[in-house]
Amino acid sequence: MKNKGILTCFCGKMGAGKTTLAKSLAATEGALYLSEDEWLAAHYPTQINSFEDYIAHSNLIKPFVRKYVIKLLNLGVNVVMDFPANTIKQRAWFIALSDEVGCKHEIHYLDVTDEQCLAQIKKRSVEQPERAQFDTEAVFHYVTQYFEKPTSEELGINIVYAKMDR
């Protein structure tokens, strides 16, 4: 029987470095990189104008993404998902997906201070002006209120504590 792939996802506040780490891990591990931002931009280029729009459209793509990822993992492909695992509910979705396939998973947690996140958001909004509408201090504080730090008490969770060099 063929080995299953490994599912990797990321937890950290906005601006913590999740995308940077995801891209780096995918490249060094020879894994397939899937970006929620890219999927949403491709499928809903003009329809996400608020955090509520983001949540609604993110939920619309998840059933398709789930089927796709399950097929890849069953083929033995390692999958790095640059989709947030920032709440207990989001992490449970990833854990359930890996449990269904019977594969290993890793949730990389980037524990970064608010100040570091805000500095990165400010830098990113200049480097990527198309993101400036959402890469603001106000949006950071709004989404941070929903952030739930992962704990070992979450059923089936495999947390990897990540360090980012900036």
From TrEMBL:
Report the domain of life of the source organism: Bacteria
- Taken from the record, one Pfam family name reads AAA_33
Name the UniProt record assigns to this protein: Cell division protein ZipA
List the source organism: Vibrio maritimus
